[in-house]
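For the sake of transparency, this paper describes our internal protein records without simplification. Because each token names a local backbone shape, the row as a whole describes the fold. One such record is reproduced below, unchanged from the form in which we store it:
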Amino acid sequence: MDRPSDPELLVTFLVERYWPGIDLETLRERLPRLEEIARTMTTEGHPVVHVASILTPVDEVVFSLIAAPDEALVRELNARADLPVDRIATAITLSPGAFPDPTGGTTP
């Protein structure tokens, strides 16, 4: 089955990683590999984008937002990057000012 190449068709997924011993230095070392593989997969015709990651060092957890057409590509990305994955869930990202105004405008 062909994958959509239109970025508008990408879905955002939240990847939860319980990662014992993770610290900022290690995460900074590992994320470039994730991004490199995402670029490679996109070149191969499977669009995947690492949107952002959040580290909570006390909890030893990393949350990553990944945009892709489907969850299978998110799993493949993480497997190829050799990163732990505990859960993947569809996520809806809301940005300030992105809420429609019932009068027809947008909120400031």
Q: What stands out?
A: Residues 6 and 78 are 22 Å apart (CA to CA). Confidence is low (pLDDT under 50) at residues 1-5.
